[in-house]
Amino acid sequence: MSSNRRPWYKWWPKDFIVDEKVQCLSPIAELIYRRALDVMWQANACQLPNVCQSLTNAFGKGLSQNEFEKAWSEIQKQEYELFKITEDGKWIYSKRLMEEMKECENISKIRTGLGKKGAKAKAKAIAKAKANGLPKQTSSDTDTDSDTDKELTLKGTYVPPTKDEIENESAVKLKKDLQAASKEIYDKNIFPKVNAWVNTMRKSGKNDRAILHTLLRCIMKPPKESCWAYCTKIINIEDGNFNERDHQKTA
Description:
single chain; Arc Repressor Mutant, subunit A; mainly alpha
């Protein structure tokens, strides 16, 4: 996937801050590590050449070569190795970023397939209407998109909304997505008590967008720990973020 189709990526500040390896980095090394993740995400293959001078040029702005090398030795300390190196030694990459990229690619493929199926269904409906001498139908008076959604749902393909969609979708669409995510996570036996958890969060005043975002995280990467505890931990972080975004939209 081209980096142009990855303008943003999921960032978990709490995970970063509490990481023991990150806590052991000097301020300069931590800054370089953070810069490296951003630059790496923008690379087409989500990896960078394992050449010190190239890395310095990429995210060592304002640092001398000696300063950069010292900080880089902290990042790649043998017991830390925050970045992995390919078998041929030519590239460095982040295992976590690679996982995020694959997830991003999978969602993109699903959405592309959904779009193609919808386009074919619409073309078929228009051709049928034309053959019968009926007025040309528009997207507002056809239901081909919903039919395509039903078809994919029956096949067991769940298409989660993107972060931008969660932030901007209407209350009606948000409710449908929340129901779909709850059903997906329940049907896959990831979180059997998901409906009880959602009701508990709503009663406590949690933002529905934050609830949906939390469930999607649990679907994409099911935790090894208790799902109830995991989701509660995530939403306690995300609820404030989504409340702030909603406030900014109405301010």
